[in-house]
Amino acid sequence: MQLLDGLATAALVRQSIAREVQSMVASGKRPPHLAAVLVGDDPASRSYVTGKIKACEEVGFLSSLIAFPSTISEQTILETIDDLNQRSDVDGFIVQLPLPQHIDATKVLLRLNPEKDVDGFHPVNVGKMCLGLDGFLPATPNGILRLLEQYHIETTGKHCVVVGRSAIVGLPMSILMQRQHYPGNATVTIAHSKTQSLRDITRQADILIVAVGRPGTITGDMVKDGAVVIDVGVSRVEDATKKSGFRLTGDVVFEEVAPKSSYITPVPGGVGPMTIASLLLNTLQAALNHQKSSA
Ligand code: GUN
Known about the structure:
41% helix; six-stranded parallel sheet; 295 residues; binds guanine; alpha/beta
């Protein structure tokens, strides 16, 4: 069993981005600028956004955090998006999900200018992804592709089972794994909460990607010997031995599954850092596109 080290791989990606930013700045250009909109005080969302802002600083990007209380109106969010859409000093921005119930997330996502949608959530970018056209790929699935690439994991003709069908991870992951180039060309099955005999399906997986957000979803008996296992789940579970009072855990029972797998991502330190690295790559691309169109 070998660990797929997301921390180390993401550090390599950040180094190459930092070099590109340095040469951008040396040629008199403004560094890429990412803005993040955060609504409410969910500790996990706040921690994700803080991680994104910190990563921007590390590679030399400019960043802005626009934080609102959970009581903010939908109208104010939409106006904030309109403002970010038209600001020429912002190359890309994200709206951290989930949003409070009274705000219609679809309405919010539809308001984004697809050229600044560095999360790749706008239907224009989702459509481009489905058709294999240039656009912004969603950060978590793209980070997983880069991790597979980094470790030269064979995907062609392999059976990839994706557990979870969310718009952010499961669905786009399933589309990307069957693309007609590496890493892709896999035979893909999507399993979800209504799937019968989940174990019979996951046991067929050469590559098992799990994104349901429920600890303990995948136990040792559900995995074939030699499978590649990608654990996207990040849940907080109480742990009195930690200063914070919690620890992070994935969807996969690591102690049972790791000995059977050829490669596996740890949680934390697997997919999470790659998500952030991919967001930085999209922001760099948005800045390059922006510079080209305004040259
Ligand atoms: N919530 C969980 N994952 C993500 C992500 O990748 N982007 C945003 N904006 N919100 C999220």
